[in-house]
Design brief:
alpha/beta, TIM Barrel, eight-stranded parallel barrel, 16 helices, 58% helix, binds flavin-adenine dinucleotide
Length: 390
């Protein structure tokens, strides 16, 4: 492991944060670390927003501004530029979730398309991203994945989903940027996987224009990566893979339990960590065919990646390897890696406050359940505050 623990440098990590922003972040993580508060807070917020109570301002001044770039693409401009001065890139993420209407899928398509337009010629934004369920009904993905017969109107719906995927991929290719496709619940993911595979075969001839996401908390994913790798060799395309641990663990386990099937999730955190590192190592062994975006806040996995790159003499800024964290989290990893010349991009969510609430609640719950991470943020913020005061 590395002698030089680069993530401990809080001066570099928080160079863009004013003293008052540091204090706000500290206050926020302190609140998030109290589990009952998060549980009550998310329920009350949901109720208040549905009842149209005037809580938006409060949300904006706290969680929203910490974890999001703004309501619109325009709002995010300042943040994008500021981060880019430190060699940290932005992945604008239209984080509206759970919509189920055709008109809203078309609206989401337009948003992603606008982001691609906005990204063209901007070195600060080499990626765009979307969620499969943002482009079509969850249930259709589920039915297609389970190979159930579709009605005539469902066939048309599926065709429209395919067209939406195709349109943004073609646009990303023409704009010279990369497109990441997020992964979601396992019971809809098979259909999304097939669709992204189709797109990769079509668009990834010279470079990985499109990348699929591998959730390493699923114990079957290393085998899936190996199958994909063979497919890419056979059909002569570059494989693009974003690797993450996975964000839907509780939901996955609950459903498996209720419907009485084997959970697709690794037995424990240790197994997930080992699986994540195994997938990452496999890809580092095959970089001639696979491009990788490592989406993780885990220090050990990031240090392992650094170490593997050093051992294999892969340049820090090799265009096939990117590192990503979420805006508002793990700046000590993002900014320190960027300072060392690695390719780093932060997901920068944007959208109307009410619509990004599911995203924000996931962040709050995730930071609560991964207590270690919240404590780590608190320790780092405190350390930096002390360094500035001394
Ligand atoms: C840039 C970026 C993009 C992302 N895109 C996606 C995406 O498309 N789809 C998606 O699902 N998630 C996505 N995520 C979220 C990601 O999957 C994780 O939820 C989050 O990053 C926490 O994992 P970690 O590696 O950062 O850190 P860690 O704190 O080391 O890991 C926490 C994760 O470990 C796993 N875990 C925790 N406890 C257990 C247990 N008892 N048994 C088994 N596994 C356990 C869970 O996956 C949990 O989220 C993304 C994250 C980033 C940074």
């Amino acid at each position: 492991m590395l002698e030089n623990k680069i993530f401990e440098d809080t001066k570099t990590a928080f160079a863009l944060k004013s003293d008052s922003e540091l204090d706000r972040a500290y206050f926020l993580f302190k609140m998030i670390s109290v589990q009952p508060l998060v549980r009550v807070g998310t329920a009350v917020t949901r109720f208040a927003l549905n009842a149209k109570l005037p809580v938006e301002k409060l949300i904006r001044a706290t969680v929203f501004d910490h974890f999001c770039g703004g309501v619109s693409v325009e709002d995010c401009k300042d943040t994008i530029q500021k981060m880019h001065t430190k060699n940290v890139h932005s992945v604008l993420d239209f984080s509206v979730e759970g919509e189920e209407e055709e008109s809203l899928f078309d609206a989401a398509l337009e948003k992603v398309s606008n982001v691609i337009d906005f990204s063209e010629d901007k070195k600060a934004m080499p990626f765009s991203v979307f969620k499969p369920s943002g482009f079509g009904r969850f249930e259709i993905f589920q039915k297609v994945g389970a190979r159930k017969e579709l009605s005539t109107s469902e066939e048309k719906e599926w065709q429209r989903i395919r067209e939406r995927f195709d349109r943004v991929c073609a646009q990303a290719e023409a704009a010279g940027i990369y497109l990441l496709v997020d992964a979601e619940e396992s019971w809809m993911q098979d259909a999304a996987d097939r669709l992204v595979e189709e797109m990769m075969e079509k668009y990834n001839k010279e470079r990985a224009v499109v990348s699929n996401t591998i959730q390493c908390y699923r114990w079957d994913r290393l085998d899936y990566v190996k199958v994909l790798h063979q497919d890419a060799i056979k059909k002569n395309y570059k494989l693009g893979l974003k690797i993450v641990r996975g964000a839907y663990m509780e939901k996955e386990r609950k459903r498996a339990d209720e419907l009485n099937y084997d959970s697709p999730i690794c037995r424990d955190k240790f197994e997930t960590d080992a699986h994540f590192n195994a997938v990452m190592s496999y890809i580092f062994d095959h970089l001639e065919d696979i491009w990788m975006f490592i989406g993780s806040h885990n220090e050990e996995s990031n240090y392992l990646a650094i170490e593997l790159m050093r051992q294999k003499e892969i340049a820090n800024n090799d265009p096939r390897v990117w590192f990503g964290q979420l805006y508002g989290m793990s700046d000590h990893i993002s900014f320190n890696m960027a300072a060392e010349g690695y390719n780093v991009a932060k997901y920068l969510p944007f959208g109307p406050v009410k619509n990004v609430m599911p995203y924000l609640m996931r962040r709050a719950e995730e930071n609560t359940s991964v207590a270690g991470q919240t404590n780590r943020e608190l320790t780092l913020l405190k350390k930096e505050r002390k360094r500035r005061d001394d």
